Amino acid sequence: QEDERKIVETYNGIKFYLDSIHPGNTIIETFVKEIHLINPNINWKDKIIIDVGAECGDTPLYFAQLGAKVFACEPIKEHFNSMVENLKLNPKLSEKIVPINAGIGKDEELIFYQDKSGQVGRTSFISNQHGKNAKQSKVKGYSLETLVKKFDINKIDLLKMDCKGCEYYLNEEILKIVKQVKIEYSLEFEKLYSLNELS
Hints:
Layout: E1 7-9, E2 15-17, H1 23-32, E3 48-52, H2 58-65, E4 69-73, H3 77-88, H4 91-94, E5 97-100, E6 103-104, E7 110-114, E8 135-139, E9 141-142, H5 144-150, E10 158-161, E11 181-183
Parallel strand pairs: 3-4, 3-10, 4-5, 6-9, 10-11
Antiparallel strand pairs: 1-2, 7-8
């Protein structure tokens, strides 16, 4: 505990403020089930990962402890702030992480729609899944092309995308510098885009 805030620590020593995480996602998915581990035989030391939808910092910290350099993109300000706080709890790992408060998809200001409670999940600029009472956040947006230029990234060993539709803005040209892509695909956008459009 630090002041009035409780801290949880994973089995391998990564710390999070308890009020910043979603135990089912942050701890179970990332650190117990290890759903983001593409291949246990890959040596991630000094590999470059772009993490689109970094939320509270769980996946950037997970990849950093594997040895990767992580560009962690999170558009929603309160989630981004939680990530920054959690990175401070892990100073050695945070040296490998570049936190970026931006949405990925288009080079323009993006409006993200989210549940009024601010809960994670179904937060997107692609469409409003929350009705007329949706909370709206204006966020700086970058195309992936602009992001790699801005941060002088020449190759991407892993592009992890949990961004509720922004994956449809990828193009074949930018994918030439990407070795692997991991997408969390959501069926809620089937009315707007076909899964075939990602192939």
